[in-house]
Design a protein that fits this description.
Elements lengths: L21 H17 L2 H30 L1 H9 L15
Helix pairs in contact: 1-2, 2-3
């Protein structure tokens, strides 16, 4: 989203119906895949470090900001869609 034109309401479509942070999950998954492919323990440490940094950022900044901005809609989303481990079925509570 463009910072000059932020969304006015919470929009939950695509990957966001399964997991709240699909881009972060994708990055950590890619690094873990590389660690397995190359059998590289340093990449495992890197994946853990990046995952921890993402987790801290999400907890300390992203979730409180979205909760303030979108209120009850974001709270319902948080209750129904997991932060890191994707759901098996898509959430259909928001359009």
């Amino acid at each position: 989203p463009a910072p000059v034109l932020p969304p006015q309401r919470l929009i939950v479509t695509g990957c966001y119906r399964y997991v709240r942070n699909p881009m972060y999950v994708g990055v950590v998954s890619a690094v873990l895949g590389q660690a397995l492919l190359f059998a590289d323990a340093e990449l495992l440490v890197y994946a853990a470090t990046v995952g921890l940094a993402f987790h801290i950022f999400v907890i300390a900044y992203e979730e409180p900001t979205l909760s303030r901005r979108f209120g009850a809609a974001y709270d319902e989303f948080r209750k129904n869609v997991p932060r890191w481990i994707p759901r098996l079925t898509p959430w259909s509570g928001a359009a």
